[in-house]
Amino acid sequence: MSLIDLTAVSFSYGRGRRVLDGIDLRIEAGRNLGIVGESGSGKTTILRLLLGLALPTTGRIAFNGAPLDPGNRSFMRDFRRAVQAVFQDPYSSLDPRQKIADIIAEPLRSLNVETDISAAVAGALASVDLPPDAAQRYPHEFSGGQRQRIAIARAIVSRPELLLADEVVSALDLTTRIRIVELLKTLSEKMTLVLVSHDIGFVALLCHDLIILEKGRVVEQGPAGSILSSPQHPYTQRLLASTPRLPDFA
Amino acid sequence: MVDLLRIENLSIHYDGRSLVSGVSLSVNVGERVGLIGESGSGKSLTALAAIGLLPEGMTASGSVRLAGQEVIGTADRDVVILRGTAVATIFQEPLTALDPLMRIGDQIAEVLRRRARRDGRSASRADIAADVMRLMARVALPEPARLARAYPHEMSGGQRQRAAIAMALACRPSLLIADEPTTALDVTTQAEVLQLLETLVREEGMGLLFISHDLPVVGTAVDRVLVLRAGELVEEGAVAEVFDRPRHPYTIDLVKAARAFDRAIGAAL
Predict the structure, then answer these.
(1) Is the torsion defined by CA of B27, B29, B34, B40 positive or negative?
(2) Which of A189, B69, B140, B228 has the most CB atoms in a 10 Å sphere around its CB?
(3) Using CA atoms, how far apart are residues A43 and A191, in angstroms rounded to an integer?
(4) Does the distance separating the beta carbons of A239 and B258 come in below 8 Å?
């Protein structure tokens, strides 16, 4: 069964034009999904819908087969525990006045997860390869890559089934980026990843399936291998052709 | 012939800390040189030192010569003459580089008028207006007559960067410094702007100093590359040589990381 289904989803902010139009997508456990698009494609809005932070103007979103129901608190708690997110800017996503231990434990508290909190925090830190003593320090003591690890630790502490990552490596240096990719790869053995990014190389490293968005519409979707090797839609072709690569000297 | 830019043993200090140390590089007429580095490597500071615009409190030592004239230790009123003639700069974020309260056409016109005054030419309003249209067409801005009347917030990111490039060209500089000029742009727009820069630099016969953290982008934009790490140059050479056979462990790491992303896209190609 699929974890999340979007059926004929459209979304407009107020009475404005549709920023998403007729989106059908299915997130299945164990199949990492990459949502690729440029600015204005609607990828951030899809992410907000997937997180339950916005409701579709038309169409349906289902979690484990049941329609998303914001009025049902226990359903939404299960949903939020199962679906966690990491965002682009690790400098603005961590509260500067809280210790790392409290930042990471936050989802456990807000979702009333009954567990040994300090053990869960220690486990999450270990999963992202940060030392145990990081728990007692503050965000400003960490580099951008380390902060992104902390944000990931917070997202995985409630043992979600789905980890949504919004441009998580875009603000990072290349060498840091590749280490975060390795970390995400390890994590994806235990959970399903949905990566939202403009960077097709990054999603290609981690995703089984791709969705290419242009101006609020899905122009192409399917297994990553076939989209990358034989892109059908002119926009996908242009996107791939525009992506700079190191010249091959061999 | 005098180098467009010759930096020798440049060091930059702030508050007793060394931010850049012992950097030397030169850019000749028609040469395209890349400066690669990650955040904090000192690449942007090197560019700012080259045009004499280091932030308050930072001190530079060594030598920076723009068109043969020393910049370090020279009074700003003497360096200001070099900016716009010897060198023009485009920055990463065109929204902050452009005046939000001024129409694009007027911003380009101001540079043209200044350049004319400096050359001792008189330029009529009609001449300037015609030159603005010509420059906007040169950087492939669509509907120049309409966009000339637009404010920066009414344009897309790519259009704004093209406008910033038009302003740089209006100076007719012999050296163009581009500091992460495509980093804020979408990939398809980036490809267009890179193509535009390549054409302009070739056709105008300018030198180019291209600064970026993005190896593939630098690889397409320049012929020779220098790698900066924590304020020091660790490697330099022809693009083909450095990207194909990197010697320094840090460059090896960078190239390996870039190739991993390339392979992911290209694996199935």
Answers:
(1) positive
(2) B228
(3) 21
(4) no
B269 touches chain A (CB under 8 A): yes
Contact by Cβ (8 Å): A187, A108 = no
Query: For residue A238, which residues of chain B lie inside 8 Å, CB to CB?
Result: 188
3-state secondary structure B172-193: CCCEEEEECCCCCCCHHHHHHH
What is the average pLDDT across A62-89?
Answer: 92
- Pick the closest to residue A10 from A68, A60, A66 (CA basis): A60
For B29-78, write each residue's pLDDT tens digit: 989 999 999 888 999 999 999 999 999 999 999 999 999 999 999 998 89
Contacts of A228 in chain B (CB under 8 A): 265-269
Provide the 10 A C-beta neighbour count for residue B107: 21
Confidence band for B268, pLDDT divided at 50, 70 and 90: very low
Distance from CA of A22 to the nearest CA of B (A): 24
- Copy the structure tokens of residue A56: 């579709």
A39–B219: do the CB atoms touch at under 8 Å?
no
CA B215 – CA B225 distance, rounded (Å): 10
Q: How many CB atoms are located within 10 Å of the residue B125 CB?
A: 9
How close does chain B come to A36, measured CA to CA in Å?
11
Contact B240 A247 (CB under 8 A): yes
Dihedral of the alpha carbons of A125, B258, B156, B95, in degrees to the nearest 10:
70
**CA distance linking residue B202 with residue B146, whole number of Å:** 28
The Cα–Cα gap between A61 and A75 comes to: 14
Which sign does the torsion angle of CA A228, A220, A198, B91 carry?
Answer: positive
3-state secondary structure of B182: coil
A39–B39 C-beta distance less than 8 A: no
Paired tokens of B206: 């300018």
Q: Please judge whether A178 and B266 are an interchain contact, meaning their C-beta atoms are less than 8 angstroms apart.
A: no
Q: Which of A178, A246, A225, A233 is nearest to A37 (CA)?
A: A233
Q: What are the phi and psi torsion angles at A208 (to 5°)?
A: -80, -40
CATH topology of domain A2-242: Rossmann fold (3.40.50)
Phi/psi for A15 (5° steps) reads: -100, 15
> What's this model's pTM, rounded to 2 decimal places?
0.86
Is B186 an 8 Å CB contact of chain A? yes
B259 touches chain A (CB under 8 A): yes
B186 to each of A126, B192, B209, how far by Cα in Å?
35, 10, 22
Domain with residues B1-86+179-269, CATH architecture: 3-Layer(aba) Sandwich (3.40)
Q: What is the distance in angstroms between the CA of the first residue and the CA of the last residue of chain A?
A: 46
Query: Domain residues of chain B, as ranges?
Result: 1-86+179-269, 95-172
